[in-house]
């Protein structure tokens, strides 16, 4: 009975560390930054991907002047070119936000503590929908010119 409880406890501990956001191994990590005009929906713990593969996570988001400074922790074996593009994406239509890094073609890489210069903020779907609805409810413009038969 004690062996069964021990095995269950070890299994739970393994699941929490492997599937959760807890990283007890601390085996990877260098930090880079990216500034966005809008980082809505992104949160600490969000996934960072390159080509659909998880390569890191967002560790912090703070306001830096009028822009959102996003701190990323990337695996040591991942090199990011200095002309790479960081964009905030959504899984599915209404899914969670994640950060996608699109590699560049440069030979130069971003060093630890460096910054990804090119960024793309997320698409504001609610704002676009509101603008569309407002434009549909607006009356059609009329011409001031008199019509001739």
3D structure, described in words:
This protein is of the alpha/beta class. It has a domain at 21-119. 21% of the residues lie in helices and 32% in strands. The chain has helices spanning 2-19, 125-137, and strands at residues 30-36, 47-50, 53-64, 67-74, 85-90, 97-102, 115-116, 118-120. An 8-stranded mixed sheet has the order 7-1-4-3-2-6-5-8, with no helix packed on it. The chain is extended, with a radius of gyration of 23 Å. The model has no long low-confidence stretch (mean pLDDT 83).
Secondary-structure element sequence?
HEEEEEEEEH
Provide mean pLDDT, rounded. 83
**Shape summary:** extended
Helix content: 10-25%
Rg over CA atoms: 23 Å
Tags for this entry?
alpha/beta; 2 helices; 8 strands; eight-stranded mixed β-sheet
Question: What's the gist of this structure?
Answer:
With 149 residues, the chain is α/β, with parallel strands linked by helices.
Write the layout of secondary structure elements.
Blueprint: H1 2-19, E1 30-36, E2 47-50, E3 53-64, E4 67-74, E5 85-90, E6 97-102, E7 115-116, E8 118-120, H2 125-137
Parallel strand pairs: 1-7, 2-6, 5-8
Antiparallel strand pairs: 1-4, 2-3, 3-4, 5-6
């Amino acid at each position: 009975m004690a062996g069964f409880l021990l095995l269950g406890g070890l299994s739970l501990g393994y699941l929490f560390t492997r599937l959760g956001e807890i990283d007890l191994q601390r085996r990877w990590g260098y930090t880079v930054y990216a500034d966005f005009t809008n980082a809505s929906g992104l949160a600490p713990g969000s996934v960072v991907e390159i080509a659909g593969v998880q390569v890191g996570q967002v560790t912090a988001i703070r306001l830096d002047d009028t822009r959102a400074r996003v701190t990323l922790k990337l695996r040591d074996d991942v090199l990011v070119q200095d002309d790479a593009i960081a964009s905030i994406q959504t899984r599915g239509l209404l899914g969670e936000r994640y950060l996608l890094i699109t590699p560049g073609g440069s030979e130069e890489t971003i060093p630890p503590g460096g910054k990804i210069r090119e960024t793309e903020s997320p698409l504001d779907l609610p704002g676009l929908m509101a603008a569309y609805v407002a434009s549909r409810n607006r009356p059609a413009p009329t011409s001031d010119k008199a019509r001739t038969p």
